[in-house]
Design brief:
It is built from seven helices and seven strands; from the N terminus they run ββααβαβαβαβαβα. By secondary structure, the protein is α/β, with parallel strands linked by helices. The model has no long low-confidence stretch (mean pLDDT about 95). This is Methylglyoxal synthase.
Length: about 150
C-alpha cells in the first residue's frame, strides 16, 4: 500500500476547465455566471475550450492543445505534479469520444491524486460555492518519494 502525505492546496487555485464539443456552451455559461470568482484563480483549459473562454469571455486562460490531440493527457500530467488543484470537466455522457481512454486516464489521475472534479453544472456549483474554494486546504496525496525509496532499497 502506498503511503500518503499531507500537502496544502493554495487559496489561489489552479483550475482546469474542459468541455466536450456538445458541452462547451454549457461550460461557457457556467464560467460567465462565476466570472468574478474564477478571475481570482489561475485557469487552464484544453485547446478549443481555452480559446473560446479567451475570445468570448476575455478570460486569462492558459490553453493547452486540444483534448483529442493530447490536451487531456497534458492536464493529467499536471495533476501528478500538483500543478492543477481542481478540474471542471463538462463531458458529454451521451456521445462516445474517440479519445475516451484519455478521458478515463484523466479522471483516474484526478482520483489517485485526490483532486476535486466536477463533471456537470450542479457539481461545479457545489465546488465553487464551497468555503474551501478560495482558502488554503490541507489534503493527502500519494507519497511518491517514499514509494521510490522503498522500491530502491528492496
Amino acid at each position: 500500500m502506498i503511503k500518503r502525505k499531507k500537502i496544502i492546496m493554495p487559496a489561489r487555485k489552479r483550475i482546469a476547465l474542459i468541455a466536450h464539443d456538445n458541452m462547451k456552451i454549457g461550460l461557457l455559461a457556467w464560467v460567465k455566471s462565476h466570472l468574478d470568482q474564477l478571475k481570482q484563480h489561475e485557469l487552464f483549459a484544453t485547446g478549443t475550450t481555452g480559446h473560446l473562454l479567451k475570445s468570448q469571455l476575455g478570460l486569462d486562460v492558459q490553453a493547452m492543445i486540444s483534448g483529442p490531440l493530447g490536451g487531456d493527457q497534458h492536464i493529467g500530467a499536471m495533476l501528478t505534479t500538483q500543478s492543477i488543484d481542481m478540474v471542471i470537466f463538462f463531458w458529454d455522457p451521451f456521445e462516445a469520444m474517440p479519445h475516451d481512454p484519455d478521458v478515463k486516464a484523466l479522471l483516474r489521475l484526478a482520483s489517485v491524486w485526490n483532486v476535486p472534479v466536477a463533471c456537470n453544472r450542479t457539481t461545479a456549483d457545489f465546488l465553487i460555492s464551497s468555503p474551501l474554494f478560495s482558502t488554503a486546504h490541507s489534503y493527502e496525496i500519494p507519497d511518491y518519494e517514499s514509494y521510490l525509496r522503498e522500491r530502491t532499497q528492496a
